[in-house]
Amino acid sequence: MPAYAWTALGVFIVAVGGGIATAVTSGLRTWRTLRRSRRALVRAIDDVLHSVTQAQTRAGRLSAAATRLARVQAQLQRSLAAAAVIAAAAGDARPALRLLAFLRR
After folding, report:
1. How far is Cα 48 from Cα 90, in angstroms, rounded to an integer?
2. DSSP of 53-80, one letter per residue?
3. Over the stretch 31-88, which tens digit does the pLDDT of each residue have?
4. Alpha carbons 15 and 2: distance in angstroms, whole number
5. What's residue 99's pLDDT?
6. CA separation, residue 69 to residues 58, 62, 75, 80, 88 (Å)
7. Phi and psi dihedrals of 97, rounded to 5?
8. Nearest by Cα to 32 from 21, 24, 22
9. Which residues of 47-83 are buried (b: 16+ CB within 10 A; e: fewer)?
């Protein structure tokens, strides 16, 4: 076999080996990137689920707080009504108290 045939065969083998090495390197790099991206995606989904769980907990507490607020507001209205009755009674009693104070002097 002539020397140029051996040279061509050598170049061919080196080219095929280089192509395979490049393909394997690119494949490994792609696989590592895919794994890294998948891990980041799973972490992000876990963070979102954790945030949703916290939001649901806060919404439940907010609902309970709104119920308590309505109850306290009703109690405040009753207290204000009682205070208005007491103020009206004090206003009605004021002339009598003035008369008693005048008589005491």
Report:
1. 61
2. HHHHHHHHHHHHHHHHHHHHHHHHHHHH
3. 999 999 999 999 999 999 999 999 999 998 998 899 999 999 999 999 999 999 998 8
4. 20
5. 67
6. 16, 10, 10, 16, 28
7. -65, -35
8. 24
9. eeeeeeeeeeeeeeeeeeeeeeeeeeeeeeeeeeeee
